[in-house]
Design a protein that fits this description.
Shape: globular
Radius of gyration: 28 Å
Oligomer: single chain
Helix content: 10-25%
Structural class: alpha+beta
Strand order of the largest sheet: 7-2-3-6-5-4-8
Number of strands: 25
Length: about 425
Amino acid sequence: MAQDTYTEVWNKVLLRCPSLSPKLAQDFVVNAFRRLMEIRRWAWLVEFGQFINPPAYSGGGTVSVTQNSTTVTGSGTTFTSSLVGQQFRIGQNTPIYTIASFTSATQIDLDSVWGGLTQSGAQPTIYQCFFPVPSDFHQFITFWDPAFNWQLFLDVQQSEINIWDAQRANLGNAFVVSFRDYTTSQVGVVEPVIQSLGTGNSPTSGGTYTAPNDAIFTLEITTGGIAGVARYRWKKNNGSYTSNVLTNGAGTAQTLQDGVTVTFPLIVSYTLGDIWVIDCTAIPNPGVPRYELWPHQTTNHVYGFLYEKRYPDLNDANTVIPNFIRGDVLMEMALEEVALWPGPSTDKPNPYYSLQAASYHQNNLRNARGNGMIDVLEVQDDNVWEQNLSYLYPALSWAMATPLGDSRWLQSHAI
């Protein structure tokens, strides 16, 4: 059976109510799909995801932090851009901070100002315990640790963990997934390189700009030559230059700051004194939920989860109507809304407006006999994923591995 398309559905609505504008017909269909999506946890909303826990930072060195400043200055450190998004702490007397940006092997910035005392020569602890979910996330269904053969609790709040472990001193195997907050990341645009002085070969820009304000990056060649020989300096806005930076001889991207990268293509020469600028536009991201895994895992580990996703609107690019959702159901839902719309004004009434017609469409969708169009869709969805029937044994209701043994033990013992 051919699957109806979004365009076909809104055109069918338009055929039944020609007084509608195409834009309004589209809007009614988009709203119908949103309402249908919210009715239940449909099988087509289930997705797989994973949190990959990186090993804790082991690059050595010490750091200096200043109260009320977000800058962390390293000495002998080997910071990389992969640390962005991971957590930072010194001891256990301050909250846990998140690394917001990477500047160099000896400088990173935190998402909030350092609240502890100013200190230098401190040993940092950098690892990940707060994890952002996929951008289409709505709700966890199940979350498990394949290495330790158990699933994790999903119903523990931050206030409860704070009762047990306010310092977050417990490290080891996580058995709790707790909502923490929403991310506040940026998804800014990095514009192409513009040459402001000179006529030599130019590098290329890239990356996603992560800072909250627009900025201009300036680059200047200070030693001419091919990539791997040429050196340059760069700065953000009116800040100080980071000097004597060697162009990458492998021709791969080099990170400047705030997610901005620059690449010097191979086998071309770069001219002493040439200057370029890169315009960056800040764009705020509405953010996604971020969850804490507790106790904190500081070794490389992977967790799997199934989640219910938020399906994109039908008028979004490349979106298709999911399987098992018939176009005539969306049309009927849209026509119900059309019948409840009186029109843009009293002198331009909607000829389809009728409470009786709205009741007719509503009865087609849901009725006491249970054979309405949406009722049938739900039965078909249950054939894919039965959600209304479950067997609960006391020994299997634990979120972690049971005291009686793991799943292999349970499979070989009659209980």
